[in-house]
Amino acid sequence: MANWDVIVIGLGGAGSAAAYHLAARGCRVLGLDQHQRIHTFGSSHGKTRIIRQAYFEHPSYVPLLRRGYELWNELEQAADDHLFHRTGLVEWGPKDGVVIPGVLRSAAEHGLAIEELSVAEVARRWPGLAVPESHSLGQWQAVIEKDAGYLRVEACVEAHLRLAEQASATLQHERPVRHWRATPHGVEVATDDGVEHAERLVIAGGPWSGQLLSGLGIRLSVLRKYQYWYAPQQTGYDQRDGFPCFFHETPAGYFYGFPSIGRDGLKVARHSGGTPVEIPTSPHPTDGADQSLIEDYLKAFLPGVGDHLQAQSGCYYTMTPDEHFIVDVHPDQPRVAIVAGLSGHGFKFTSVLGEIACQLALDGGTTLDTSLLRIERLRRA
Ligand SMILES: Cc1cc2nc3c(=O)[nH]c(=O)nc-3n(C[C@H](O)[C@H](O)[C@H](O)COP(=O)(O)OP(=O)(O)OC[C@H]3O[C@@H](n4cnc5c(N)ncnc54)[C@H](O)[C@@H]3O)c2cc1C
Which of 46, 144, 141, 43 is nearest to 86 (CA)? Predict the structure, then answer.
């Protein structure tokens, strides 16, 4: 006899949201996490995450983001916390690159409000952004998405956890799951303190998903990434001065960042690159080569920031082979829903992924179109 309706393995970005939606639907929910509440060992820490809708990665994500925006709004109301800061986002890169054509395609297909402008105009609007000579030549372009900005990542996870508990979910941290299996009547989840039984299971293990899904036949590769906070040496980079979030396709790769926020400073990171790791462990060693690339980037494009590093933090991307998420029912176990392989761009979706995971676990399907994210595409590949 199952003592839980649903067990959620992993209470990070996606799992906290799944636990919340399941509990809100009246399920008896047990959430399990191997680490303490809000930790720095996985993928959902470091103060901020960019959120945007004109999605260069694929237009199919836009309807999910539209629902995600509604859910972030509802979460802010329910949690009484300002989670989503609409600073706007400047994206720039080559006209024939990946980012600009992708943004324009998603915006056109879904009627999203964006502003197109030259990179020289961007630099006039925000003097803290410099444009190297080569960028003014007409082959570079910028796009501004006003209804974009950042989420306070830990506060979002905490809001989902707290509201899940208020809806009667039982959340247990520092209780690792050793393995799970389906039985004829449900699922069994084994921990060091005994076996838990449930009708259904949600797996949201972030960078540890490969171990939890070893039978799936899909390779998830984990990359160690870094985020850096600098104390700007000149004015004009502060959120209060209207400095936006930014995402930049350059010949040296993708870089992104946030305005300077209070005493935290300006956060900047590299979206491309990263060091493959077999098993996610902490603490993260420092990476001088990565930091040099960041400081070269700042020197070229945000020269007034300088190189006064205040803090840095390691974090993991969990990559699928095509860099699209895995959001599906387990192909061999219909009682098991999976949210994994968020490939370094998943946090902004976690509100809607929680709702989808809940529907997949309870209803066996979802009201949103997740065909791009089905497991089958990767098993065929
Ligand atoms: C540096 C960096 C910057 C990023 N920037 C952005 C951004 O700007 N915008 C954006 O949208 N996305 C961004 N991302 C990606 C985004 O943060 C991740 O896709 C998202 O946070 C992943 O959430 P998750 O729930 O899959 O993983 P996590 O939040 O890591 O949660 C997984 C949880 O599962 C638990 N767990 C795993 N195995 C077990 C087990 N066996 N037993 C019990 N518990 C277990 C872990 O302890 C962990 O708490 C960034 C990621 C990084 C690293």
Answer: 144
Indicate if the pLDDT at residue 228 is higher than 70: yes
Span 349-376, average pLDDT: 98
Distance CA 226, CA 240 (A): 25
Question: Which domains, and CATH codes, for the chain?
Answer: 4-46+154-219+322-380 (3.50.50.60), 89-146+221-318 (3.30.9.10)
Q: Which residues contact 62 (CB under 8 A, 6 or more apart)?
A: 53, 54, 55, 106, 109, 110, 112
Atom nearest to 191 CA in ligand 1:
42
134 pLDDT more than 80: no
Tally the residues of the chain.
381
Write down the pLDDT at residue 381. Answer: 56
* Catalytic option among 135, 267, 324, 330: 267
Span from the CA of 282 to the centroid of ligand 1 (angstroms): 14
Confidence of residue 133 (pLDDT cuts 50, 70, 90): confident
User: Is a pLDDT exceeding 90 seen at residue 105?
Assistant: yes
Q: Which of 11, 49, 220, 349 to mutate to test ligand 1, by most ligand atoms within 8 A of the CB atom?
A: 49
Which amino acid is it at 368?
Answer: L
Percent with pLDDT over 90 in the chain: 93
Whether 271 is a known active-site residue: answer yes
Task: Measure 10 CA to ligand 1 centroid, in angstroms.
Answer: 9
Residue (of 343, 225, 335, 171) closest to 353 by Cα position: 343
| Residue among 225, 345, 348 whose CB has most ligand 1 atoms within 8 A, to mutate | 345
Report how far Cα 363 is from the mean position of its chain's Cα atoms. Answer: 25
Query: Coil, strand, or helix at residue 3?
Result: coil
pLDDT tens digits, one per residue of 187-225: 999 999 999 999 999 999 999 999 999 989 999 999 999
Strands 309-319, 221-230: pairing is antiparallel
In which residue are the tokens 């030549």 written? 137
- Compute CA distances 354 → 141, 161, 258, 335, whole Å: 35, 12, 26, 16
| Centroid of ligand 1 to alpha carbon of 29 (angstroms) | 21
Name the average pLDDT for the chain: 96
Look at residue 283 in the predicted model and tell me its pLDDT. 78
